[in-house]
Amino acid sequence: MTVRVLVVDDSATMRSVITATLRADPEIDVVGQAADPYEARQLIKQLSPDVITLDIEMPNMDGLAFLDKIMRLRPTPVIMVSTLTQAGAEVNLKALEIGAFDCVAKPSSYNRDSFEQLAEKVKAAAQSRRRPMLAQRAPVLPGGSYAPDGRLVAIGSSTGGVEALITILSKFPVNCPATVISQHMPPTFTASFAARLNKLSAAEVSEAVDGAKLQTGHVYLAPGNAHLEVSSGYVRLSDAPKVNGHRPSVDVMFHSVLRSMGGRSVGVILTGLGRDGAEGLLALREAGAETIGQDEASCVVYGMPRAAYEIGAVMRQLPLEKIAERILLSTNVRSREHAG
């Protein structure tokens, strides 16, 4: 089935670039272009597109306000297209919380391949069943009794991962297990996202820095253009080539956890496009680690978890709202469910 797309951007040049990029894929048809939200609103009514690409900074009405109207009045998968600035990062994260499917950066002199996955993301957006839901704080464990057993938690995520990670980390206690995360995200977004997570979690969440010591109560988010690895109880960052098309790569992180912690770890794979992390998660399971995959019904994109599940890497497949509880039960020294 052909995916019908409406391109919304105040720049005629950018509309042409996005349109040309998408039309290079025979499964995508750009059915219209709009220079501002008012023109876009009329075209949405006339054309009923499957997916909308939306600029954030536009005249007459900013992209966030228009996105909110779309989600409330005519829910449609939306991919935000913006510049890679610090201010842009904050706005893009807000867009993801409102319900945008994903965000991509506009090409620049230092980021020429930013549209490399645009067509795949558009097709995935057309197949998505639901928009992310805002996280709600909930009790961590019955009675709030938690004492970490020293195991390391490693979480990999991609498209849809912003809300998934908010949902999980908002349930972590102040003394949560040391946790490392690789989320596919543009470079300038991760510092803002870590700060956002830090406000929503009782744990200390930060963008990872090379040489940081892994500590209880701390969560380390891989920077947007570096592989995160662990070695002898410390974070190591690397600018080695992309793996599975990504840096950070979930597979790189999982394999480093295997080398450093072996079975004394918990691997988690969340919503995302592609199969990054599947092989690494399988290696962790074979070493005796507990492995968790997000189930299809709660994923925005059941790609990475599906790939892991199909090769036998997932020990437990759970809905998103149950994953934090399972992580904490698995790493709680007081719990009797370590093997159960």
UniProtKB/TrEMBL annotation:
Subcellular location, record wording: Cytoplasm
SMART domains: REC (SM00448)
Domain Response regulatory span(s) in chain numbering: 4-121
Chain positions with 4-aspartylphosphate modification: D55
Enzyme class, first EC level, given as a word: hydrolase
Any single GO CC term annotated in Swiss-Prot or TrEMBL for this entry: cytoplasm
EC numbers, comma separated: 3.1.1.61, 3.5.1.44
Domain of life per record: Bacteria
Gene Ontology terms for molecular function: phosphorelay response regulator activity; protein-glutamate methylesterase activity; protein-glutamine glutaminase activity
Listed InterPro entries: CheB-like, CheB_C, CheY-like_superfamily, Sig_transdc_resp-reg_Me-estase, Sig_transdc_resp-reg_receiver
Catalytic activity annotation: L-glutaminyl-[protein] + H2O = L-glutamyl-[protein] + NH4(+); [protein]-L-glutamate 5-O-methyl ester + H2O = L-glutamyl-[protein] + methanol + H(+)
Transmembrane segments annotated in the record for this chain: none
Alphabetically ordered keywords of this record: Chemotaxis, Cytoplasm, Hydrolase, Phosphoprotein
Post-translational modification: Phosphorylated by CheA. Phosphorylation of the N-terminal regulatory domain activates the methylesterase activity.
Limits of the CheB-type methylesterase domain: 146-334
GO biological process, one term: chemotaxis
List of catalytic residues: S158, H184, D276
SUPFAM superfamilies xrefs: CheY-like, Methylesterase CheB, C-terminal domain
Record function comment: Involved in chemotaxis. Part of a chemotaxis signal transduction system that modulates chemotaxis in response to various stimuli. Catalyzes the demethylation of specific methylglutamate residues introduced into the chemoreceptors (methyl-accepting chemotaxis proteins or MCP) by CheR. Also mediates the irreversible deamidation of specific glutamine residues to glutamic acid.
Family named by the database record: Belongs to the CheB family.
Domain notes per entry: Contains a C-terminal catalytic domain, and an N-terminal region which modulates catalytic activity.
Identification of the protein by name: Protein-glutamate methylesterase/protein-glutamine glutaminase
Native source organism of the sequence: Acidocella aromatica
